[in-house]
Amino acid sequence: MIRVNIRQKRFGMVPVLGPLAFDIAAGETVALTGPSGIGKTTLLRLVAGIDPVFDGQIDRPDHQAIVFQEPTLLPWRCALDNLMLVHSGLPRADAETALGAVGLCGKGSLFPGQLSLGQQRRLSLARAFAGRPEFLIMDEPFVSLDAETADAMLSLTEELIAQHQPATLFVTHSMTEAERLADRVLELKTGPDGAVLA
């Protein structure tokens, strides 16, 4: 479903990525690991189509969703509106069901500032899955959470991925998270012309 073939990605004259290539099958979850600053988020931005400036080719479905490190919620909109604004045409009942599926039943009228960080992350997951994406991209979705909340979020993400079966690529520094959630783990390492797969 997703085919990545990057010959090189540069920022100015500085090589950051490449060459590297990998595929992600429909329903497969792939974790991307590596040291800080190696280029994991840069690669994620290329795969998502956020940054189109690189040498190579990436094939991906149009129907995708992204979960960023930060929840990226609109603070002046309630939880239900945050979900429904992204998915125009989503029936209110379906939006409320999506909130319930991530443990936010009855919290649709609350604003992001009234939610804990864990609840905001749950809302981000609900927003991602409400559109039933073919391709899910997650950039360190469990960072900055305490161990108990992170474990609960991992369990929730496992359930949602099992239910919806998107092809999934997620960045993590944690091998525990990678081994628990992913079918396959890719690791970036420093190469002569930018980061490559180990």
Report on the architecture of this protein.
The structure is a single chain. Helices cover 33% and strands 28% of the residues. The chain has 198 residues and is α/β, with parallel strands linked by helices. The longest helix is centred in the last third of the chain and has 18 residues. The chain has a six-stranded mixed beta sheet, sandwiched between helices. Strands 1, 2, 3 and 5 form a four-stranded antiparallel beta sheet that branches. 38% of the residues are buried. Helix 2 packs across helix 3, helix 2 packs parallel to helix 4 and helix 3 packs across helix 4. The two termini are 22 Å apart. It is globular and about 55 Å long. It has six helices and ten strands; from the N terminus they run ββββαββαααβαβαββ.
Largest sheet descriptor: 6 strands, mixed
Helix content: 25-40%
- Basic shape: globular
Output the helix-strand order.
Answer: EEEEHEEHHHEHEHEE
Straight-line N-to-C gap: 22 Å
Spatial sequence of strands, sheet with the most strands:
6-7-8-4-9-10
**Cα radius of gyration in angstroms:** 17 Å
Based on helices, strands and strand pairing, what is the structural class? alpha/beta
- Strand fraction equals 25-35%
**Mean pLDDT reading:** 91
Low-confidence stretches: none
Number of helices: 6
Give the tally of β-strands.
10
